[in-house]
Amino acid sequence: MSSDCRENKKKQIGWKHAFRGMVHAVRSEINLRIEILVAICVIVLGFLLRVSLLEWAILMLTIGFVLTIELINTTIERIMDFYSPQRHSIVGLIKDIAAGAVLCSAFFSIIIGCIIFLPKIIDLL
Ligand SMILES: Nc1ncnc2c1ncn2[C@@H]1O[C@H](COP(=O)(O)OP(=O)(O)OP(=O)(O)O)[C@@H](O)[C@H]1O
Asked: Least packed by Cβ within 10 Å: which of 2, 80, 81, 116?
């Protein structure tokens, strides 16, 4: 088998595993499902309010950022549950900090949403 072919196969398998991980996270994490729903609403609102190209770029970056942080938070939860199934204060603290990262990204994404959408909504009134 040529190295090109092997590399191609490796990439395909990588995508498959990544997709499986995302499906698992969506199925098991209600917060991720809520965030995807909010992202869909934001995209619909973006079309309705005709946001500019730059605003689309900022919105896509923000949505990607929040979803990525949520996936990392889910990963940290799984790692902690695997290595330390018993309750432990440091495990709780690690999970709290990871949850804090999600909260932080969600908070700033709301601010970005307000900056982009509020003036357009006010103009419509
Ligand atoms: N093993 C543990 N030891 C101590 N505290 C824990 C432990 N597991 C969870 N906790 C506490 O419970 C909280 C919720 O943890 P859990 O793993 O249930 O995540 P979750 O309910 O899916 O949270 P999230 O909303 O962030 O996804 C943690 O932030 C932590 O404070």
From this structure: 2
* Mean pLDDT along residues 15-27: 96
Ligand 1 center–CA 98 separation, angstroms = 10
Average pLDDT of span 103-112: 98
Structural fold of domain 3-124: Helix Hairpins (1.10.287)
pTM: 0.88
Distance in angstroms (rounded) separating the CA atoms of residues 78 and 31: 15
| Number of alpha carbons in the 13 Å side-chain half-sphere of residue 1 | 8
Q: Which residues have any ligand 1 atom within 6 Å of their CB?
A: 29, 31, 73, 77, 84, 87-88, 91-92, 95-96, 99
In order of 22, 81, 119, the CA distances from 57 in angstroms are 23, 36, 18
- Please state the domain extents for the chain: 3-124
Displacement of CA 102 from its chain's centroid (Å):
9
